[in-house]
UniProtKB/TrEMBL annotation:
This is Short chain dehydrogenase. It holds the Pfam family adh_short. Belongs to the short-chain dehydrogenases/reductases (SDR) family. Keywords: NADP, Oxidoreductase, Peroxisome. The keyword Oxidoreductase applies. PANTHER family: HYDROXYSTEROID DEHYDROGENASE-LIKE PROTEIN 2 (PTHR42808:SF3). It is found in: Peroxisome.
């Protein structure tokens, strides 16, 4: 991937992105010459979570892109519209809408507080809907429009449906919205796809909620998702839409055969919703 790629000079709007997979996607896009607009809540440092929307924007600029940090909540319509308006005012339009923000509470039904249930549905579903809805008028004017949601293929195995139904509903809901937009916006030439990692990814969520240091050692780096996202966003919107991709499959189609550089060792752990 080179600086004269289809991302050079184009504008990517993303929810979240202060850290983890979102940050890696932002940096990868910046490295390819994109403008990146981040809508995120983390305005000041949190001792438990590295990075803020401002440090993320700086990292994207250091990678070679332009960046705009917008402090706000993807659940709030006014904040979302402000992010879209600022993106258009600064960069002239929006070419990519990346739904990255998500809340994780992988708990059984009786263990899950209603407040956490509401948070997951509001961020994953309402937030994804609000950001995409606000971006669509500008995507219609882009010559290379893509919607990309970081959500899994809809695996209806009882193993996954019964593991933590509320979180599963929130993540599958993101995918269903995205596949719905692929059909709804097909005539406009706007691509809409989901992307999910085959393996656990070494993020704060994995460290804090999905196994700690042991899981981190058997997880791949966020760069594997970033590289897959760049590959999807480079593809023709009319030819690449309506798919729920797995990162490794995307990269194999790009000719990648060695994944050892992403870490995780020989006994890497599969992510949720991915069968062996």
């Amino acid at each position: 991937m080179t600086a004269n790629s289809t991302l050079a000079g184009r504008t990517l709007l993303m929810s979240g992105g202060s850290r983890g997979i979102g940050l890696s996607i932002g940096i990868a896009a910046g490295r390819l010459g994109a403008n990146v607009v981040l809508l995120a809540k983390t305005d000041t440092p949190n001792p438990r979570l590295p990075g803020t929307v401002h440090t993320a924007a700086q990292a994207i600029q250091d990678a070679g892109g332009q960046a705009l940090a917008v402090v706000g909540d993807v659940r709030e319509e006014a904040d979302v519209q402000r992010a879209v308006d600022e993106a258009v005012a600064r960069f002239g339009g929006i070419d990519f809408c990346v739904n990255n923000a998500s809340a994780l509470a992988p708990l059984k039904t009786e263990e899950l507080p209603v407040k956490r249930f509401d948070l997951m549905q509001q961020i994953q579903l309402r937030g994804t809907f609000l950001l995409t809805r606000a971006a669509i008028p500008h995507l219609r004017r882009s010559p290379h429009p893509h919607i990309l949601s970081l959500s899994p293929p809809v695996n209806l195995s009882p193993r996954w449906l019964g593991l933590h139904p509320a979180y599963t509903m929130a993540k599958y809901g993101m995918t269903l919205l995205t596949l719905g937009w692929a059909a709804e916006l097909a005539e406009a030439g706007i691509a809409a796809n989901a992307l999910w990692p085959r393996t656990l990814i070494a993020t704060a969520a994995v460290r804090n909620l999905l196994g700690g240091d042991e899981s981190m050692q058997r997880a791949r780096s966020p760069e594997v998702m970033a590289d897959a996202a760049m590959a999807v966003l480079r593809r023709s919107p009319r030819d690449c839409t309506g798919q729920a991709f797995i990162d490794e499959d995307v990269l194999r189609a790009e000719g990648v055969t060695d994944f050892s550089g992403y870490g995780g060792g020989s006994d890497v752990l599969l992510d949720l919703y991915v069968d062996p």
